[in-house]
Amino acid sequence: NGVAFIPDYKNWEAISSTERFDNGTMRVIFGNAVAAKAIDENQMNPWPDGTVFAKADWAQQAGGDGIIRTGEFIQVEYMIKDAKKCASTAGWGWARFKTTQLIPYGKTALFASECVACHQPLRDQDFVFTSPFKN
After folding, report:
1. What is the pLDDT of residue 2?
2. Neighbours of 107 (CB within 10 A)
3. What digits encode the pLDDT tens for the residues 77-107?
């Protein structure tokens, strides 16, 4: 879909985390400098153009001590805010890179409609599921 892998996401600020019990994953959401500034200035609905989120997902792994830890890396997903360029996909560019080989997900750019459909219940929150941590 024209969204390239962004390796620098690991250096961005961790802005939130989430756990999905339905599929057994743990996630850390990173935000670029534009996202971090928007959070600091409470400008999150809508998010400003240039905002980029990276959500890194791992499988949950139960330790013998009962503590749940990150297991196998599953994927990293991106949401890139560009209201004009991405008008047909709710103002966001979407990408997913699976496994440690970072294999692009989706055979065509139409996969983004899958992302928009999943995020549709959050349209009143600019399609963003997870609220950021506040400073």
Report:
1. 74
2. 7
3. 999 999 999 999 999 999 999 999 999 998 7
pLDDT-based confidence at residue 109 (cuts at 50, 70, 90): confident
Task: Please enumerate in sequence order all residues whose Cβ is within 8 A of that of 130, keeping only pairs 6 or more positions apart, or say none.
Answer: 16, 17, 18, 29
Which of 117, 112, 121, 128 lies closest to 46, judged by CA? Answer: 128
For residues 12 and 30, what is the distance between their CA atoms, to the nearest angstrom?
6
Residues 6+ apart with CB under 8 A from 16: 28, 29, 130, 131, 132, 133
Contact, 20 vs 28, CB < 8 A? no
Q: Which amino acid is present at 35?
A: A
Please give the Cα distance from 51 to 40 (Å, whole number): 13
* Closest C-alpha among 58, 48, 47, 51 to residue 30: 51
Identify the CA nearest to 35 among candidates 94, 91, 79.
79
pLDDT over 90 (residue 47): yes
At which residue do the structure tokens 């962004």 appear? 6
